[in-house]
């Protein structure tokens, strides 16, 4: 049975992704900063027929919890097949470039960029033991510099000094990692689930969590011929569903 770790999985898109992976027959570690909260959610999932899910404590800004989570998964599975870096924060809006406090910008980057890198680097060893390792970094259309600079883009007026730039940086890191691992079985991509109605945006998004999670799973559970180093977006309507960087 393949195993997956989903960070930030106690609600919204992360939780729905866990449900879909469970239906696909994987063993899933539901990442939660608060273990008790995660275990409560897993019990509820179990009552609703979702199996092979275990809560695991992981705060992606806390190296101690990251290493502990790795040790638990290594002991129980011996490897990890899928890492979905879903945990992230918005930092609140507005985020004017001229006056957003540097401390607030740094806080968002600490989670969305540095935290994701910490998790990824820590779990690379276990992922390397998988026959089909997959890393999906959850991003946003707001991280696309091409789209952010296009006045015709529907989200052109959504600008910010913290959230979008943190995802742009994550996109750049993903390109670098995918290139480094290009001659291995790894598939490393960034996935934008689209503007989804969640607590993250006070439920203003147009898409459902079900559709968003299905998009993530579609571009994560891929075969050996699938691309790597790509930016897939649920808001892009073309055959490849690829977004410009």
Short account of what is shown:
With 245 residues, the chain is α/β, with parallel strands linked by helices. It is built from 7 helices and 7 strands.
What's the structural blueprint in terms of helices and strands?
Elements: E1 3-6, H1 12-23, E2 27-32, H2 35-47, E3 53-57, H3 63-77, E4 82-85, H4 102-127, E5 134-138, H5 145-148, H6 163-180, E6 187-192, H7 209-218, E7 231-233
Parallel strand pairs: 1-2, 1-4, 2-3, 4-5, 5-6, 6-7
Helix pairs in contact: 1-7, 3-4, 4-6
Task: Describe what you observe in this structure.
The protein is an alpha/beta fold and 245 residues long. The chain has one domain: Rossmann fold. Helices cover 40% and strands 13% of the residues. It has seven helices and seven strands. The chain has a seven-stranded parallel sheet, sandwiched between helices. Helix 4 links the parallel strand 4 and strand 5. It is globular. The chain starts with a strand and ends in a 12-residue tail after the last strand.
């Amino acid at each position: 049975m393949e195993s997956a770790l989903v960070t930030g999985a106690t609600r919204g898109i992360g939780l729905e992704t866990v449900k879909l992976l469970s239906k696909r027959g994987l063993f899933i570690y539901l990442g939660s900063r608060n273990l008790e909260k995660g275990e409560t959610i897993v019990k509820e999932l179990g009552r609703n027929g979702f199996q092979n899910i275990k809560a695991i404590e992981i705060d992606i800004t806390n190296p101690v919890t990251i290493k502990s989570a790795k040790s638990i998964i290594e002991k129980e599975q011996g490897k990890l097949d899928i890492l979905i870096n879903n945990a992230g924060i918005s930092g609140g809006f507005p985020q004017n470039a001229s006056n957003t406090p540097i401390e607030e910008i740094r806080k968002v980057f600490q989670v969305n960029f540095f935290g994701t890198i910490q998790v990824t680097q820590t779990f690379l060893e276990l992922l390397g033991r998988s026959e089909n390792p997959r890393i999906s970094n959850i991003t946003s259309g707001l991280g696309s510099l091409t789209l952010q600079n296009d006045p015709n883009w529907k989200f052109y007026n959504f600008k910010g000094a913290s959230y979008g730039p943190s995802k742009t940086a994550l996109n750049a890191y993903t390109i670098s990692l995918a290139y480094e691992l290009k001659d291995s079985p790894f598939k490393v991509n960034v996935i934008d689930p689209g503007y989804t109605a969640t607590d993250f945006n006070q439920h203003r998004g147009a898409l459902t969590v079900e559709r968003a999670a299905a998009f993530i799973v579609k571009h994560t559970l891929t075969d050996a011929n699938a691309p790597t180093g790509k930016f897939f977006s649920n808001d892009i309507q073309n055959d490849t569903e690829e977004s410009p960087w």
